[in-house]
Write a structure and sequence with these properties.
heterodimer, A: mainly alpha, 2 strands, elongated, B: mainly alpha, about 0% strand
């Protein structure tokens, strides 16, 4: 069982940072709503508030790790330009997608949208975490701020979802491959 | 009898909304700058070339770097100005959400191609 170095980075970017971020998003929205919009006693929520702060900080780290690894590690391999006369485009995902009318949309719509919209997630969640850490449960006394924070949190989920779906589908049609081969398990042939 | 949950202790100053409004507004600005630069880079070869900060990543490196710097700069300035103030949060949040919605729409390639 082996994996190329580029495929491993794609997994870390998409399934690791991006996937964990998406999983965490709905939990963050529920936590924020519970703490800032529903009536609860301070005794029952003090520890929970601290938990949500740590949860949001983890999400900020995941979001930035996802966009930075995507933009500066995986994307250059995706958009690599083949030398003139190259027939086998399997190592050049963007050109492979653009070579067929059946797949060009995954680049011209999917990747073009993903590469920009994905950046809204870290910007939004950093703001959400800052405002929550700054105001805590007092956010319930600032209705406009609370609504905006929840809306940005939701937008961050949508942005990460768009980036995740198009990233996964693009990799399905034109996977990022190459680099050193990493062997995990070696079995003898029977 | 315990104090109501939302009560503010007499010696605690009320928390102003300026700092939160600054963070929210600047996040909207950051997203919009990113969407605007993405379109501008797509339409102008000159802008596209000037946005290549890191060649392997292409113009995306400049688009994202400039947007993040603009976001942080706006945030810093507004937080410094609004931190101790009560500001018109309703209007500021509405503008920030409009910028965010516009950014989501503008980055959608079929919409961006209309310009």
């Amino acid at each position: 069982m082996e994996l190329t170095e580029r495929a491993l980075w794609t997994l870390i970017h998409g399934m690791g940072f991006g996937g964990l971020y998406l999983l965490a998003c709905s939990g963050a929205l529920v936590g924020l709503y519970q703490l800032t919009a529903t009536p609860t006693s301070p005794e029952s929520t003090h520890g929970y508030e601290r938990f949500v702060r740590l949860y949001l900080i983890t999400m900020v780290v995941l979001a930035w790790a996802a966009v930075l690894s995507g933009t500066y590690a995986v994307y250059p391999w995706y958009r690599a330009v083949p030398p003139p006369g190259t027939v086998d485009l399997s190592m050049f995902p963007q050109r492979l997608l653009m070579s067929s009318p059946a797949t060009i949309g995954w680049h011209s719509v999917g990747m073009e949208w993903k590469e920009h919209v994905g950046w809204f997630a870290p910007i939004s969640i950093t703001m959400v975490a800052f405002v929550f850490i700054r105001y805590g449960r007092d956010l319930r006394n600032h209705r406009q701020l609370r609504s905006a924070v929840l809306a940005f949190g939701l937008a961050s989920l949508v942005a990460a979802g768009i980036a995740g779906v198009f990233g996964a589908e693009t990799d399905e049609y034109a996977p990022v491959r190459g680099g050193h081969t990493i062997q995990f398990i070696q079995e003898e042939t029977k | 009898m315990s104090a109501p949950y939302n009560a503010v202790a007499p010696d605690t100053p009320p928390v102003t909304n300026g700092s939160g409004a600054a963070a929210i507004f600047s996040a909207g600005v950051g997203c919009f700058v990113l969407a605007f630069l993405a379109i501008l880079g797509d339409k102008s070869a000159l802008v596209k070339g000037s946005l290549v900060f890191y060649k392997p990543t292409g113009p995306l490196s400049g688009v994202s770097t400039v947007a993040v710097l603009m976001w942080l700069f706006t945030w810093g300035i507004l937080d410094w100005r609004w931190r101790k103030k009560m500001v018109a949060a309703r209007r500021i949040c509405a503008i920030a959400l409009a910028l965010l919605a516009l950014s989501l729409i503008l980055t959608f390639p079929p919409v961006a191609d209309l310009f």
